[in-house]
Design goal:
By secondary structure, the protein is an alpha+beta fold. It is built from 3 helices and 6 strands, in the order αββαββαββ. Strand 3 and strand 4 form a beta hairpin. The longest helix has about 40 residues.
Length: about 110
């Protein structure tokens, strides 16, 4: 944990387009809550249940990729990931509603 003055944070903060916000973290650092939540989930649900949920997420990602392609939207999916990457939707309301992350015309 680091505590510092705002002027020091502002010196290295930068806008991150796909987050639609300013990133003030040290390069490579992450929120410390994520590993705690993962540990808690594994302990509460157990490995097998967590694994089943993971497989469901992967199936959903493949379904989304296939559906987007079916309706004529270019989409990609790394086989080991649940992140579907696709071209920018035309409807800005849709983008805002679902808080889609973007970089240029690529969304995920």
């Amino acid at each position: 944990v680091q505590i510092t003055r705002i002027e020091h944070i502002n010196a290295f903060s930068r806008n991150v387009e796909y987050l639609a916000s300013v990133d003030a973290t040290i390069m490579g650092s992450r929120n410390g809550h994520a590993p705690i939540f993962l540990w808690y989930t594994l302990n509460c649900k157990g490995y097998r249940r967590f694994q089943k949920e993971d497989q469901k997420c992967l199936r959903n990602a493949h379904f989304l990729k296939d559906y987007l392609r079916y309706v004529g939207i270019s989409a990609m999916l790394n086989e080991l990931s649940s992140t579907v990457v696709f071209e920018r939707p035309q409807d800005e309301t849709f983008v805002r509603k679902w808080q889609l992350a973007s970089q240029g015309n690529i969304f995920h």
